[in-house]
TrEMBL record:
Function: Activates KDO (a required 8-carbon sugar) for incorporation into bacterial lipopolysaccharide in Gram-negative bacteria.
One GO term describing the cellular component: cytosol
PANTHER family: 3-DEOXY-MANNO-OCTULOSONATE CYTIDYLYLTRANSFERASE, 3-DEOXY-MANNO-OCTULOSONATE CYTIDYLYLTRANSFERASE, MITOCHONDRIAL
Catalytic activity: 3-deoxy-alpha-D-manno-oct-2-ulosonate + CTP = CMP-3-deoxy-beta-D-manno-octulosonate + diphosphate
CDD domains found in the cross-reference section: CMP-KDO-Synthetase (cd02517)
Gene3D superfamilies noted in UniProt: Spore Coat Polysaccharide Biosynthesis Protein SpsA, Chain A (3.90.550.10)
Protein's pathway: Nucleotide-sugar biosynthesis; CMP-3-deoxy-D-manno-octulosonate biosynthesis; CMP-3-deoxy-D-manno-octulosonate from 3-deoxy-D-manno-octulosonate and CTP: step 1/1
Lineage of producing organism: Bacteria, Pseudomonadati, Bacteroidota, Flavobacteriia, Flavobacteriales
The protein's name in its UniProt record: 3-deoxy-manno-octulosonate cytidylyltransferase
Entry keyword set: Cytoplasm, Lipopolysaccharide biosynthesis, Nucleotidyltransferase, Transferase
SUPFAM superfamilies referenced in this protein's UniProt entry, alphabetically: Nucleotide-diphospho-sugar transferases
Coiled coil (residue ranges): none
GO molecular function, one term: 3-deoxy-manno-octulosonate cytidylyltransferase activity
Length: 249
């Protein structure tokens, strides 16, 4: 089973333009993410796929592998699908370019799901995290997921799901952590399938898999990534990096 990692990297960002080219220590954010993915030693290969020559050059001139995306895409999964069309692989892990502190454990859990899937019934695997802060549960920026007893996703939503009809019963709530693992065929099929009403309404790309009958396995984790969305986030990431370096000294 050949497992690769692909890091989608758009240059534009509404809240923090060119954030992936911001400096994290002596390297750019995107280069840090790429090199940290390599260091996990979980993958046969790691690629950055980007719409930007600036990002492409930053990776390749430092010995990395990058693929130019030739088309505009609605989602990161669509961009990755274009990248893997001509790559030999079985499983693709989507690593977020703006989360440079790549963790081995949650990625290894995603990979293990496919190694144990003898019937090849899992199309996609993704991470979820239990949340109990009601502000986060109600926040539409936090995508919630409900699952069945076998840990397959039933639905993803920006709304509160399940809805607390009986106040005396406290349900478990899960946040979707946007780290995916795909079977190659499922990902290529995804890019050819139309966006249906629920995905269009929610603006949550993994709904497309469910609406077209594919199966998504969810894996619970306590993983919380360090996502860089603002200049302040980059400052915090640099503080974390300094702490990590000091711990090694």
């Amino acid at each position: 089973m050949k497992i690769i990692a692909v890091i989608p990297a758009r240059y534009a960002a509404s809240r923090f333009p060119a954030k992936l080219m911001g400096m994290l220590g002596k390297k750019t954010v995107i280069r840090s993410t790429y090199e940290n993915a390599l260091k996990t030693q979980l993958f046969s290969d790691v690629f950055v796929v980007t719409d930007s020559e600036i990002i492409h050059n930053d990776i390749t001139r430092n010995g990395g592998k990058a693929i130019m995306s030739s088309r505009e895409h609605e989602t990161g999964s669509d961009r990755i699908a274009e990248a893997v069309e001509n790559l030999e692989c079985d499983i693709i892990i989507n690593i977020q370019g703006d989360e440079p502190f790549v963790k081995i454990e949650p990625l290894a859990k995603l990979i293990e799901v496919f190694k144990k899937d003898q019937k090849n019934e899992i199309d996609v695997a993704t991470l979820i995290r239990k949340i109990d802060d009601w502000k986060l549960i109600e926040d539409p920026n936090y995508v919630k997921v409900v699952k069945d007893r076998n840990d397959f996703a039933l639905y993803f939503s920006r709304s509160v799901i399940p809805y607390p009809r009986e106040k005396s019963f406290l349900a478990d709530y899960y946040e979707h952590v946007g780290v995916y693992a795909f079977r190659r065929k499922a990902l290529l099929d995804f890019a050819k399938l139309p966006m249906l009403q629920n995905e269009q309404a929610e603006k949550v790309e993994c709904i497309r898999y469910l609406e077209h009958g594919m199966k998504i396995k969810v894996i619970e984790t306590d993983f919380v990534g360090v996502e860089i969305d603002t200049p302040e986030d980059l400052e915090k990431a640099n503080e974390i990096l300094k702490e990590q370096i000091n711990e090694k000294i």
